[in-house]
């Protein structure tokens, strides 16, 4: 249970470089009223970034046409419909995990 | 501080906890196997507080990268937060810079997803609600990392339980909920498809982090253009 000096300094440096992008826009941009086009551009960011993250998680280019190798994508599509139907984040997550569990068990 | 709003924020964090727990647990296991002590893993989770960045940190420590290389890589991996932080800024215009510092310092993909969904649904985000959401997620993340570091040696294969899918499932849920509350289905679906294509298409060339930033900027710009057409 100890922290070595070099790791400590490294973690503090990493902390600073991850902190800056998080806080600078909030601290600076919130002091101005942004032009309308900028606000509308920013309003698209949630959809864009969530979609990009999901895409990278679920779509890997694979050299395979077997369904068993694409179970995560199938689970993702089913989860999508459950999210649209239940409109509940909690149920979506629970369904996604259970569905993956079953599909991987079937594919194994 | 508004207590009711604070605890509403804590409650709204609950659906994300499973995702944080499984990823945090895995992150703790990886960091431990890279040779970090439990105290170092706790410090990493407290000070860096970023899923993908901590995985990469552990991986680079394990393969003896230079300190400068690690710091530079983590900077690029987390650079997408510039966009997330900017996108939340219109909701917190009346706050002091210090309060915005507090909100921003605990910003993650997940809390961003939950709070922007809240903003889309209610048109505003209460600062106390945001603090509740942030703190719940933060404490859960630290606990999950430490648990992974301590217990990891007994649970070798968390993927067998499907828990690693909690994260993509959460992103899917957040995406769908936002689309439902925004009610701009045509342009939102176009933006999402564009982000997926650019994000996955660029991955082999530029790596995951740069591709996420490129995909977000391209797709948001497409959204702006599509809106202009009508």
TrEMBL record, chain A:
InterPro entries: Brnchd-chn_aa_trnsp_AzlD. Keywords: Membrane, Transmembrane, Transmembrane helix. This is AzlD domain-containing protein. The keyword Membrane applies. Pfam families: AzlD. The keyword Transmembrane helix applies. The chain crosses the membrane at residues 7-25, 37-55. The lineage of its organism: Bacteria, Bacillati, Bacillota, Bacilli, Bacillales. It comes from the Bacteria.
From TrEMBL, chain B:
It is found in: Cell membrane. One of its GO terms (cellular component) is plasma membrane. The keyword Transmembrane helix applies. Its main location: membrane. Keywords: Cell membrane, Membrane, Transmembrane, Transmembrane helix, Transport. The chain crosses the membrane at residues 17-34, 41-62, 68-92, 161-177, 189-206, 212-229. InterPro entries: Brnchd-chn_aa_trnsp_permease. It is a multi-pass membrane protein. Belongs to the AzlC family. PANTHER family: INNER MEMBRANE PROTEIN YGAZ. This is AzlC family ABC transporter permease.
């Amino acid at each position: 249970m100890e922290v070595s000096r070099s790791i400590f300094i490294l973690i503090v440096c990493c902390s600073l470089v991850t902190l800056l992008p998080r806080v600078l826009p909030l601290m600076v941009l919130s002091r101005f009223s942004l032009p309308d086009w900028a606000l509308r551009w920013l309003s698209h960011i949630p959809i864009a970034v969530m979609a990009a993250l999901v895409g990278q998680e679920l779509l890997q280019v694979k050299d395979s046409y077997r369904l068993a190798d694409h179970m995560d994508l199938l689970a993702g599509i089913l989860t999508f419909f459950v999210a649209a139907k239940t409109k509940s984040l909690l149920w979506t997550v629970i369904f996604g995990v259970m569905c993956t569990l079953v599909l991987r068990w079937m594919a194994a | 501080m508004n207590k009711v709003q604070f605890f509403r924020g804590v409650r709204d964090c609950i659906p994300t906890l499973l995702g944080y727990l499984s990823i945090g647990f895995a992150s703790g296991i990886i960091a431990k196997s890279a040779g970090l002590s439990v105290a170092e893993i706790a410090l990493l989770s407290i000070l860096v507080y970023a899923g993908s960045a901590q995985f990469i940190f552990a991986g680079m420590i394990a393969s003896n990268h230079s300190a400068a290389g690690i710091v530079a890589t983590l900077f690029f991996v987390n650079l997408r937060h510039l966009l997330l932080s900017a996108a939340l800024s219109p909701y917190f215009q009346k706050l002091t810079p210090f309060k915005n510092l507090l909100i921003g310092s605990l910003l993650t993909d997940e809390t961003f997803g939950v709070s922007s969904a809240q903003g889309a649904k209610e048109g505003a985000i209460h600062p106390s609600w945001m603090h509740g959401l942030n703190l719940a997620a933060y404490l859960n993340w630290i606990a999950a990392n430490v648990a992974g570091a301590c217990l990891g040696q007994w649970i070798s294969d968390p993927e067998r339980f499907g828990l690693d899918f909690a994260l993509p499932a959460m992103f899917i849920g957040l995406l769908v909920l936002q689309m439902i509350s925004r009610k701009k289905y045509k342009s939102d679906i176009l933006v999402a498809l564009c982000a997926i294509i650019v994000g996955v298409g660029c991955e082999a060339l530029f790596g995951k982090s740069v591709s996420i930033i490129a995909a977000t900027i391209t797709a948001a710009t497409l959204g702006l253009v599509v809106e202009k057409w009508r």
